[in-house]
């Protein structure tokens, strides 16, 4: 009888484990305004603080970043609903939410999504053209993807922190 040798499969995903989501609010200079520790599958960003900051200085908040389980680069339905709500609240400013995750043990990808409420003029024009009533549209699109390498020189501190707090690696000492 032939025995098939057990081969240890050593793919990156098994060496990096997701523990919990973590959030960070960034200003328009990419500096940290607030760190928001999350739950295993959710981050409760403080609505009151965000509203206050936006009223004080519209455009000051660049984006809300949060970690996601391994391989989940896209936004969830809950994220999408939150983006729509903020796009309305922050109009005419766009609202950005990003996900930070990996599918290996080396890098972390930030996918930045932007939500914009259709302007009143565009909406009225569209209504006229389509000859029917419709709601103002909220468009959500992937704006940018940034790749980070945790543990390398020049790596942003907040990305390192969010990575350390959200993921566990087998090669960690
Ligand atoms: Zn999410």
Give a description of the structure.
It is a single chain. The protein has 173 residues and is α+β, with helices and mostly antiparallel strands. It has one domain: Cytidine Deaminase, domain 2 (3-Layer(aba) Sandwich). The protein has helices at 12-15, 47-56, 77-90, 120-130, 157-166, and strands at residues 16-18, 22-27, 32-37, 61-67, 95-101, 108-117, 138-148, 167-169. A 6-stranded mixed beta sheet has the order 3-2-4-5-6-7, sandwiched between helices. A two-stranded antiparallel sheet has the order 1-8. A hairpin with a 6-residue loop joins strand 5 and strand 6 (108-117). The longest helix has 14 residues, at 77-90. It is elongated, with a radius of gyration of 20 Å. The model is unreliable at 4-12 (pLDDT under 50). The structure holds zinc ion (ZN).
Strand order of the largest sheet: 3-2-4-5-6-7
Question: Could you give a short account of the major beta sheet?
Answer: 6 strands, mixed
Number of helices: 5
Strand residue content: 25-35%
Portion of residues in helices? 25-40%
Brief account:
28% of the residues lie in helices and 31% in strands. The chain has five helices and eight strands. Strand 2 (22-27) and strand 3 form a beta hairpin.
């Amino acid at each position: 009888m032939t025995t098939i040798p057990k081969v240890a499969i050593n793919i990156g995903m098994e060496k990096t484990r997701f523990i919990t989501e973590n959030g960070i609010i960034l200003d328009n200079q990419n500096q940290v305004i607030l760190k928001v520790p999350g739950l295993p599958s959710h981050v409760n960003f403080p609505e009151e603080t965000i509203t206050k900051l936006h009223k004080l200085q519209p455009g000051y908040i660049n984006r809300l970043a949060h970690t996601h389980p391994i391989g989940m680069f896209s936004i969830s339905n809950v994220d999408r609903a939150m983006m729509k709500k903020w796009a309305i609240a922050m109009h005419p400013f766009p609202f950005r939410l990003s996900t930070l995750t990996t599918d290996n043990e080396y890098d972390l990808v930030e996918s930045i999504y932007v939500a914009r409420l259709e302007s009143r003029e565009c909406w009225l024009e569209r209504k006229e053209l389509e000859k029917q009533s419709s709601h103002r549209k909220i468009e959500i699109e992937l704006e940018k993807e940034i790749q980070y390498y945790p543990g390398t020189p020049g790596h942003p501190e907040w990305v390192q922190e969010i990575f350390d707090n959200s993921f566990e690696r087998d090669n960690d000492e």
